[in-house]
Amino acid sequence: MTSQDVNIGRNIRRMGAVEKVTGEALYPGDIDLKNQLWMKIRFSDRAHARITAIDTRQAEAHPGVVAVFTAADVPVNEYGLLIPDQPVLCGPGSSKPGADIVRCISDQVAVVVAETEQAAAAAVYLIDITYEDLPVVTDVFAAMADSAPQLHAEVENNIQTHYRIRHGDIEQGWAQADVIVEGEYITGHQEHAYLQPEAGLSYLDDEGRVTVVVAGQWVHEDQEQVAHALGLEHDQVRVIYPNIGGAFGGREDMSVQIVLGLAAKKLQRPVKIIWSREESIIGHHKRHPITIHARWGATRDGKLVAAEAEVFGDAGAYAYTTPKVMGNAHLMVCGPYEIPNAKVDTYGVYTNNVPSGAFRGFGGPQAAFAAECQMNKLAEALGMDPVELRLRNVLRDDSVMVVGTPLPPGVTLDRVLAEGAVESGFWQRSGDRWQRVPPNPAPDSTRRRGTGVAMGFKNIGFSFGYQENSWAEIELHGQAQIERVVVRQAGADVGQGAHTAFQQMAAEAVGVPVEKVEVVSHDTAFTGNSGSASASRMTFMAGNAIRGAAEAALEKWTQEDRPAIGTYTYLAPKTSPFDPETGQATPNFAYGYVAQFVEVEVDVETGQVEVLRVSSAHDVGKAINPRLIEGQVEGGVVQALGYAVMENLVTRDGMILNPYLSTYLIPTVWDIPHEVQSIILEYADPRGPWGARGMAEMPYIPLAPAIASALHDATGVWFDRVPLTPETIVMKLREHGIGVI
């Protein structure tokens, strides 16, 4: 039996599974230190205002309070993952211009540190803040107007990002089109709702480093931002992740890290904080609400000839990852299809809403909702099966995207779609023709059933010119034989099982059973920079880094160097940004591909949607651990279901009106699909480790348009906005004379 038979492609039990099930696993909120203090944060009371004064005297006089910190106490009062445009603390006394202005309710104004959590909680509202209200703008289109309040002095008309695509001759494309469909697609905010709200602990370690213990997605980026804001060198800051209770992009940006480090540095004592669910919903970013105007044209034989789109994303008050999220939406709004003529304008716009940032799919779900609904509408207008229409236009190895370049080698969109359609049982093929299989009748007269289809693609790894990289180190211990392997790789395991995959890949690369491999991660003191647990990149990037480190270690082993230590940094193929005028680019070095097929039942009286079955087909390149992949598919489908039919964050004038899980509803066991079928396909990615592709975001991307497609099949009505709440569905059905009036 080869080592590959032992380690790769097997359902190895996930690292830490027993500890999590038994409750022994420690998360940031579970860790305490002797003599620790407690922190509470005062958030902004306004969506847009200038703070003219902060009076902390009453808070400081409260029993048990040790210190109150404001903007004047932060050495370098700014942070931001891509653009440092947000103050750590808002208020007067800061050297950063504009730091006295709060631009959203997520802004932090002051922190109270006390001997007990109760004392800090009581004192934080004794801080007296004097505001000078400023005009509030919460609508993207109003924010772009010349008369709108300007939220950042260096940005004109609040347009943080503007991308263009000018591909082919759009007017010629319209002249060739026999059928043209148009639509306006609207998507809303979404809350990450991870199991563990933000929490953390900070202290000075034995070497005097400011040490921050939190849950995040990239220890080295957290280290960099904490060090920058505190005016320290990187090696004076240490970041440690214990167990992480979910992330989904919501932990890419700062929450408690900097203020914890600030307090520990100034007070020379451990400081701890735990956010409530309300604080979590207010305090971290959301999925971008995006509005898309789309117009597509095709010939009678079903060939796409033109696509035009305007894409408007609500960035909220600060940049966060808006440039990259809107870049993904820009690329994907024309779908995974070959379209010879395209014109796209994409905008990311500042408003006084809660900031928008990374969330599973990273602009892909919003773009796919528009693109896939357009394809389904075209199929109906042409009298053509939607699977057949897609197969006539889907990108292949020799296809050119609307950004003027081909996808990287190994494109399998056609196979994912065709094999998924057959495996789902919702479609059948007769020769070269595809046909939908009618669903079973609904159980009563008010309920109707339908099936739907959508597909998508998503980048693996960072994009648009960033030199993607990942570090790993492997130690081989033993004498005549390798008895123990230590792999150091900082990639975060946010709950997806990444460290188990690291363990399996290291065992495979070295040629030992997986039981001999120990993973060291999540600590900047012991690892190099491995990049973020995002962009579906972990297995691809870490795997290539681990392979390189293993080769270096094995070479030293053959030279009888004990322990044999190999270090390697994998550099992915280069990418390029969009050309500012044409959009020409090589935006990504690898992609994942997905197609989904769903069956739904809708009650036309109540608008209640029940998703009966989801078949999700994925090319994963190589399944390192099939069970972990199934978990990603099932989790992604359920999370996307919440986005599609339930999760409705209600805001008014920049304020969140439902910052509780009692009123912001996420799927429970009673809401999830009756069945999720994971169709795992393995067509090796030429650049992936053992052929593996990333796939964590893919199950999320096409579900909303697939459900919209199934609702149309059931009712004959198109639905162009999410979430598809019962109220939304009933109102639309009534417009078409369906259901009780």
Short structural summary:
The chain is α+β, with helices and mostly antiparallel strands and 741 residues long. It contains 18 helices and 27 strands. The chain has 3 domains: 3-25 and 469-571, Aldehyde Oxidoreductase, domain 4; 33-134 and 195-246 and 251-283, Aldehyde Oxidoreductase, domain 3 (Alpha-Beta Complex), CATH 3.90.1170.50; 363-370 and 380-461 and 584-734, 2-Layer Sandwich (Aldehyde Oxidoreductase, domain 4), CATH 3.30.365.
Describe this structure in words.
By secondary structure, the chain is an alpha+beta fold. It has three domains: 3-25 and 469-571, Aldehyde Oxidoreductase, domain 4 (2-Layer Sandwich), CATH 3.30.365; 33-134 and 195-246 and 251-283, Aldehyde oxidase/xanthine dehydrogenase, a/b hammerhead (Aldehyde Oxidoreductase, domain 3), CATH 3.90.1170.50; 363-370 and 380-461 and 584-734, Aldehyde Oxidoreductase, domain 4 (2-Layer Sandwich). The chain is built from 18 helices and 27 strands. Strands 3-5-1-12-9-10-11 form a seven-stranded mixed sheet, with helices on both faces. A five-stranded mixed sheet has the order 7-15-14-13-8, with helices on both faces. α7 (219-230) packs across α8, α10 (322-332) runs parallel beside α11 and α14 runs parallel beside α15. The protein is globular, with a radius of gyration of 26 Å. The chain starts with a helix and ends in a 6-residue tail after the last helix.
